[in-house]
Structure formats: structure tokens, C-alpha cells
Specification:
heterodimer; A: 201 residues; mainly alpha; 80% helix; B: 70% helix; flat
Chain lengths: 201, 99
């Protein structure tokens, strides 16, 4: 009698864990967005004034970078599902690269602000109005947490890159890559909301 | 067994182009002063972008109803919590004793 192997392959269930985690992260950022909403409602003029000092061009470039990285992420997943390992590696590397570019941009933005003495609790900032202090407190906190998520995302994607290279991720076994992609898209989603709220008031 | 691609590369690129177009739109809308309507416009555009990412890039289009239901519940919770917060703070004086 032949012993048949039952292949357990639950495509949706395999992603459930990541989705649950994403909901948690979403709630975490929602709390901060809520804080932002309340203080913006209270100090609208100050928020508008403070927002003008942020570089809209940089913000737009960063948005385009993250949106493109999401594209290369899904193209990478599609490639490996088609069995094209090389192409998948290229797309995944591009995603990681774009994430790093985003980090460099953010570093330049932050250091420019810090150089002008604008950071939470700085002497310079404390001379400004309450609303502006709140704006920058929220700006640094929220973009800071976002940067942390980008870094975590880059680490995860790098691990995936190695797995892909070593063929641990393949045509038939690619749920890890999909889940990593889900995390990366969350980072993108958060930025899609951060951008207009801080840069385009 | 080759896993099927539900969503083609071409669709992904089209979604990406739509996202870039919406980004352009939101930046342009920023330059036009619509007063109180500005935030509504930018949040609406951002919501559409997020929906595009969720449905196409995150494959919700082809997921089982369970996952779709779950994200809907999360989004509703977020809306309710936000709404309820505003029913509270709309009637408070917030500009004193903040620090």
C-alpha cells in the first residue's frame, strides 16, 4: 500500500499571524495619529506654521521611494512564484536599497532640523509656541517610530534575501517572502498617512 | 505544483502608477487653499492610496473573507475610537495646562 504524503498548505492561514501582528502595529500608530489629531485640532495655527518648515520636496521624494519599493516587493514575490529566482533577487535587493535611500533622506532631514536647534526640549524650540513644540514632539516621535519600522523591515528583508539566495525560499515555498512583504507594505501605508499630516498642512 | 499568480505584474505597475498620480494630486491640492476642506481632501486621497495598497499589493483582493472581515473590523474600531475621542475633546478647553 502506498503511503501518500498529505501536503498541508494553507495559504491564507500562513499569513494570519503576520496580519494579526500588523493590526497591532496599526493600532500602535493609530494611537499616535489620534494624539496628533487632538493637538492639531487645538493648535491648528501653530501646526500650520511649524509644518511650513518641513521640506515638502523631500517628503514627496520619500513617498515616491516607498511606493516604488512596495512595487518592487510584490514584483519580487511574483517572480519567485514564477520560478525566476534571479529576478526575484534583483527586485528584493531593489526594495532593500530603496528602504536604505529613505533612511538616508530621513537622516538628512533630521540632522538639518537638529542643526537648527529644533528637537524636542531644545532651548530654541522652547522659545516657540506650545503648538509648535507639540508639532515637533509628534513629528520626531512618529517619524522616529516609522524609521524604526523601516529598519526592522530592512533587516527582515535582508534575511529573506539570504534565504532566497540559499533557495530556502522557492517557487513552492514562499510564504515567508509574502509575509515579509506584508510587513513592508504596512510601513508604506503608515508613511502614506504621515506624509500629508506633517508636510501638507 | 506551481503557485498561481493571482495578480499580474501589469496590474501591479498600473496600481503603482495610480499611487504616484494620487501622490501628485495630493501635493497639488496642498497648493490650493480650500480652507477647512484641505484636510478632508488630503485624508480622502490618502485613504484611497491605502486601500489600493491593501487590496492589490497586500493581496486582499484574493484573500478569504475572514481576513477581509478582520481588517474591516480593525478599520471600524479605529474610526469609532477616533470619533469618540472627538466627541470628548470638542467640548474641552485644551489650550490650558497642556504641559
Amino acid at each position: 500500500m502506498e503511503k501518500t504524503d498529505i501536503e498541508l498548505d494553507d495559504k491564507s492561514g500562513g499569513k494570519l499571524g503576520m496580519w494579526l501582528f500588523l493590526y497591532g502595529e496599526l493600532m500602535f500608530f493609530t494611537a499616535m495619529f489620534l494624539l496628533y489629531a487632538v493637538y492639531r485640532y487645538t493648535y491648528s495655527d501653530d501646526f500650520i506654521k511649524a509644518s511650513l518648515e518641513l521640506n515638502t520636496v523631500m517628503g514627496t521624494i520619500n513617498t515616491v521611494i516607498l511606493l516604488t519599493s512596495s512595487l518592487t516587493m510584490v514584483l519580487s514575490i511574483n517572480s519567485i512564484k514564477d520560478g525566476n529566482r534571479k529576478l526575484s533577487l534583483i527586485y528584493l535587493s531593489t526594495t532593500i536599497f530603496l528602504g536604505l535611500v529613505f533612511l538616508v533622506n530621513k537622516y538628512m532631514e533630521w540632522s538639518a532640523k537638529i542643526h537648527h536647534g529644533i528637537y524636542p526640549n531644545s532651548e530654541e524650540l522652547l522659545t516657540h509656541s506650545k503648538g509648535e513644540n507639540l508639532f515637533y514632539g509628534l513629528y520626531y516621535t512618529m517619524t522616529g517610530m516609522h524609521i524604526l519600522h523601516i529598519i526592522i523591515g530592512i533587516i527582515i528583508l535582508s534575511v529573506m534575501l539570504v534565504s532566497l539566495y540559499k533557495r530556502k525560499i522557492s517557487e513552492n515555498e514562499n510564504i515567508y517572502l509574502e509575509n515579509s512583504g506584508l510587513f513592508w507594505h504596512l510601513v508604506d501605508i503608515i508613511w502614506i498617512f504621515l506624509f500629508p499630516l506633517f508636510y501638507l498642512i | 505544483m506551481k503557485t498561481e499568480n493571482h495578480i499580474s505584474n501589469k496590474t501591479y505597475v498600473l496600481v503603482w502608477i495610480a499611487l504616484l498620480a494620487l501622490t501628485t494630486l495630493t501635493v497639488l491640492a496642498f497648493r490650493v487653499d480650500l480652507g477647512g476642506l484641505n484636510i478632508l481632501v488630503s485624508m480622502s486621497i490618502a485613504s484611497i492610496k491605502v486601500l489600493l495598497v491593501l487590496i492589490y499589493f497586500m493581496h486582499l483582493r484574493h484573500e478569504k473573507g475572514f481576513l477581509i472581515g478582520a481588517i474591516l473590523i480593525v478599520l471600524i474600531i479605529i474610526l469609532v475610537v477616533t470619533g469618540l475621542t472627538f466627541t470628548d475633546i470638542s467640548y474641552r478647553r485644551m489650550d490650558t495646562n497642556v504641559f
